[in-house]
Amino acid sequence: MDIHLLTHNVISILSSVVLLGMTLFTYLNGRRNVGNVTFSMMLLFAAIFVVSHVIGVNISDPELSKNILMFNLSLFGAGAFLFHSVVYFTSKTRPRVSLIIVMYAIAVFFVIFFLVYPDQFLISSVPKMYFPNYYNPGTLNLTRLIYLYAVFSYAIYKLVVLYRASTTTASRNQYRYFIFAMIAGFCVGFIPNFLVYDIAVNPLWGMSFALVAIVPFTYAAVKYELFNIKVIAKQAFLYSLSVIVVGSCLTLLMYVSVWTREAYPNFPSWTIMLVSSVLAVTISFVVWWRLRENDVLKYEFITTVTHKFRTPLTQIQWAADALSDNVSDADGKEQIHYIHTASTKMVELINILANVSQSEAMEYTYKIERCDISGMTKDLVSTYMPQCLEKRIQLVSDIPPDVNVFCDRSKMSFVFQVLIENAIHYTPENGTITVSLEHKNSGVNLKVRDTGIGMTDDELSRVFSKFYRTASAQRADTEGMGIGLFLSKEIVSRHGGDIRVDSDGLGKGSMFTLHLKDEA
């Protein structure tokens, strides 16, 4: 096999593996998020293109090569899904559904048209440079590039607009590296098209577009939490990169084996196979051991927490019930009611913590029903009013009646509790907390604004991470675990909603905004 063709094949295979790994990473990180799902579908269709390319250009039969290369029609699907994901991620209001439908319709039209008239897309393949067969474009083949790169240009434009409008360092870094990754990938990925139109440019390095894009993508994903990485997605992503490294080593050993047989015919070829086998088994064992170790630690921790916490909390509830039967004065009954309510909230927290841990491996049940968010919010404000009065904090509410959404009542109540309790914990005496509810953007917004400790730009980008607490929060409340906001974001995401935080800086307060789709 020609050394250039071999190198081309190796790079193409590695690119396909990278694309599949990125597909898995993006999908696992937001299976209920439209933007994540459509972006992962774009990556999957790009992987289909790479696989069909590397197979098609290595086949000596011109007609069979052409039929396999017809899978390049997947680029229309990649363009449509890219457009959909960009519109979703960049739209501050409801995305323009009609525009998305038009782009999908155009892609479907071209795919059907070229399936009916394939010669308009590709003619029987012909040998070019070192390839047994390569693309022989039909009259309308150029439409795939026009469509794909028109979408790419639109995506870059929208991302640049968001980058310029961004007010935080973290978000600007996310946009900058994502823009750079897209530009690098699409520009390098254009190189193989020169030879399609008989321009003698070696397409070898063009198939490394996924490898080029993965560098800034990985850096942004790990350092700046691109897509707000969850633990399971980060693990899947890192293991995918490990597979790529192992695949590269095995491919290199295969090439060494071929070169050795040609240069030294008497050299025992079984030694290279032995090294490859030992490498593959060793890496597989390490990955398996790490996965097993993580699972054991996780479930031992959850089992210990749930067992150690549930038993005393249940005893507290029983004791509170028994005391309430023997106390006659109103003040005493009120204090016992506080004890019972607090222990009930702790039991709910333990249950949700256990469920979230299990949710990294499987979906757990949500009881979705029509809920009166107005009533739920008013009840919580009333519950926390005595605590605010004791701390000399003014708790203001602006809650219109009859606001309803479909949600899991207990889990959404937990989210509301976390937001209000955090505001109380981190707002000093004589401060103000404002809880408001409003219809906005085809949904319902709950806002909890405080005049508390505030956050820096760096803290804003990490505040929803598991076990993360800002330095100011640790000084204000030494008993926190840094788990409440992480659990809240997980719950809201599973409802198809969104939760974000804004702050003008340290000492200037914070505002948490929770957005849920309304019952319509």
Automatic annotation (TrEMBL):
Gene3D superfamilies noted in UniProt: 1.10.287.130, Histidine kinase-like ATPase, C-terminal domain
Signal peptide: none
Molecular function terms from GO: phosphoprotein phosphatase activity; phosphorelay sensor kinase activity
InterPro entries tied to this protein: BphY/WalK/GraS-like, HATPase_C_sf, HATPase_dom, His_kinase_dom, HisK_dim/P_dom, HisK_dim/P_sf, Sig_transdc_His_kin-like_C
Entry keywords, A to Z: Kinase, Membrane, Phosphoprotein, Transferase, Transmembrane, Transmembrane helix, Two-component regulatory system
PROSITE patterns: HIS_KIN
Domain called Histidine kinase: residue spans: 304-520
Entry GO terms, CC: plasma membrane
GO biological process: cellular response to phosphate starvation
EC class (word): transferase
Pfam families per UniProt: HATPase_c, HisKA
Enzyme nomenclature, EC number: 2.7.13.3
Catalytic activity field: ATP + protein L-histidine = ADP + protein N-phospho-L-histidine
Record field: transmembrane: 6-25, 37-56, 68-90, 97-117, 146-165, 177-197, 203-224, 236-258, 270-289
Keyword Transmembrane helix among UniProt keywords: yes
Name of the protein this chain belongs to: histidine kinase
